[in-house]
Specification:
about 375 residues, about 10% helix, disordered N terminus, 3 helices, mainly beta
């Protein structure tokens, strides 16, 4: 009997030790839910991280259980030997893959869109944004190092998505930013950010078949973001000069190259049908704005589309806005002080907040799983 009790005591001790070890392991890994490795219904946030801190990170929000998981790339890839990198600038999902453009690391990281497992990466110096057409990816590049004293004409690299190898490149304007593709042509917003105060004002138009720049269209000062509607119009944000020339949005009709100023401030914007939602932290006044603009009437409908003034006051630096058409929800990423954890706010289309959550440093862009 004593032998039996002795055996049971040791067995119970072993079970306790194993339980403690298992609990410790779960704690060390941040109580990770295994379901995050097969994401199906949610969205990713690429956190930029402060320049030079090597703190770009990827978060995930699960619609099914309303869980927010931080730093999922590191968790999903414990053996790749590196973190996501320095300054996450763009995040796009194409096919079964997800592409993270990591500016200061001069690379585009390619992952499985559901498991977040590392597939590969490719080098593009001072890379900025990515778009896709057929079997190719197109990445805008400042061409040179992250150094305003060494400004040079930028280019767009064409990448084969099967091999992740560069196939062609085309020179565009200075410091090219976001791009859109309309009718076989690539429209590239040139900023000239390294040439301040002599910023660029043009959009480069590249014929994809020949991969040559066929013309430049003058639009506005220090161009940045580009979005398109279903009618062949492009909407392009101008960052102004951060002093006496404010931010703005311009409409470019790709059928006749006519340009019209909308006269609204925006550091980020999203098009929802005939509505345009714009957010901004305007310099040098540090004033935040949340504008709702009617594209048909060509008029501002609301000076603030956020219904609750106390919620609007909590957002310090509106850095990015996105829209999920399936859920009819708007999302605003708040970069706070640019160097610490940010926050994401989810809104209904009538401007009421539904939830909010802390993010990584400088939440910069959202990519929705479909």
């Amino acid at each position: 009997m004593k032998i039996k009790n002795h055996f049971l005591s040791h067995s119970l001790l072993a079970v306790c030790i194993l339980s403690i070890v298992a609990t410790s392991c779960r704690k060390d890994n941040g109580n990770i839910d295994p379901s995050i490795f097969n994401n199906t219904n949610g969205f990713y946030i690429l956190n930029q991280g402060n320049m030079g801190s090597n703190k770009a990170s990827l978060d995930y929000y699960n619609y099914d259980n309303a869980k927010y998981v931080s730093n999922i790339f590191v968790t999903a890839n414990p053996n790749v030997g590196f973190k996501l990198g320095d300054v996450g600038n763009d995040l796009q999902i194409y096919g079964n893959r997800m592409y993270a453009v990591i500016n200061l690391s001069n690379m585009v990281e390619v992952m499985n869109k559901r498991t977040v497992k590392h597939i590969g990466n490719f080098t593009v110096p001072n890379c900025r944004y990515i778009v896709f057409y057929g079997s190719k990816a197109y990445v805008s590049s400042y061409a040179g190092p992250v150094d305003p004293s060494k400004s040079q004409l930028g280019y767009v690299a064409e990448i084969d998505t099967a091999t992740l190898k560069e196939t062609r490149r085309v020179t565009v304007g200075y410091q090219p930013e976001q791009m859109q593709i309309v009718d076989g042509k690539l429209y590239v917003a040139n900023s000239g950010g390294y040439n301040a105060p002599n910023y660029e004002k043009t959009v480069s138009v590249v014929d994809l078949a020949s991969f040559t720049e066929i013309k430049k269209i003058e639009v506005g000062l220090n161009l940045n973001l580009v979005q398109k509607d279903e009618k062949g119009n492009l909407y392009i944000s101008s960052r102004g000069n951060y002093e006496d020339i404010p931010t703005n949005i311009y409409r470019l009709d790709t059928h006749n190259d006519k340009v019209k100023s909308l006269g609204i401030n925006a550091s980020s914007f999203v098009i929802v049908g005939d509505s345009l939602f714009a957010v901004t932290l305007e310099y040098p006044s540090y004033t935040t704005k949340y504008t709702l603009y009617d594209l048909k009437k060509e008029a501002v409908i609301k000076d603030s589309f956020i219904s609750q003034s106390d919620v609007a006051a909590k957002i310090k630096t509106p850095y990015h806005i996105a829209y999920n058409p399936q859920r009819k929800e708007l999302y605003i990423c708040d970069a706070k002080d640019y160097k610490s954890a940010g926050e994401i706010f989810c809104f209904s289309l009538d401007g009421n907040v539904r939830w909010q959550n802390q993010t990584g440093d400088l939440p910069a862009v959202i990519a929705f799983l479909k």
